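Q&A log
Question type: sequence-to-structure
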Amino acid sequence: MEVNGYNTGPEAEEMNEYLLATYESVIHDPPGWRQTLHDVHRTVGAFREKSLKTYLRGRTLPADLEEADLRWTNLYRMNLKGANLARANLSGVKLEGVNLEGANLTEADVEGASLYNANLSGANLREANLELVTLHSANLSEANLSETRLSRANLFSAYLEEVNLTEANLSEANLERAWIEKGNLTGADLTEANLRDTRLHKANLSRANLTKATFWITNVTQANFTEANLTQAIFSGTMFLLTNFAGANFTKADLTESAFAIADLSGANFSETNLSGTDISGMGFSGANFSEMDFSEAGLSKKGFEKTNFKRANFEGALWDESTVWPEGFTPPKR
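Response status: OK
Response body:
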């Protein structure tokens, strides 16, 4: 018979019974149970893989694999373009180089799977579980990953043009050298995420949580960080061009030797932030809070600080000139 298009005849039912019987037999932890399970998973995976290839052979319409259990299979470079894998179980599956362009993986369980160099362009992964997934060099352009779980996922050098990551969980994810152009990460959780040498061009990270995230030597242009939480984030050596940080929270962040060119930081909170050696000559700070902040060696020329709070800020060695506009009643630091 067929369930959702995927062949699950008598042989498949027997395989499931075999799997359940094996689980029952090892419940009391007999000697060698780990090897027994490994062998069983390999046998079941091989059967499922063979059944899937048979089902796909000569098929012209997208595969219907909704709620299919494909654990322990190796789907290397398989063509699943446009396939329906909603709520399917792909946890731990080898999917290197697989074509999932335009596929439906809503609410699918893909935890721990390897999608190295996979094509997921235009795929729908809304609310899917992608924790601990390898997406190294994967193509996720125009994919929908809103509300997706991607904690501790590896997206090294992944291509994320126009990707939708709204409200996604990317905590501790590796986005080093990833290309994020026009991506929507509104409200995303990027706590302790690695964004070293990442390209963020026209990306929207408004209201995103980037607590303790690392942006070392990251290229950020025309990005939107409005009301983002950047507490204790590390931005050392990062270049920000035409970036909006209005209302962002930089508490205890490290901006050492970063460069801001034509950036808007109006209403931002810089309490206890380190800006030593940073060029902020192209930034707007109306209403910003700089209490207990380190400005040592920072460039402050041509700045307007009319509504800025400098409570206990350290300006030792900061560079400013006659064009700098200080708050009323504030005594400028010595030059």
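Response note: Confidence is low (pLDDT under 50) at residues 1-5.
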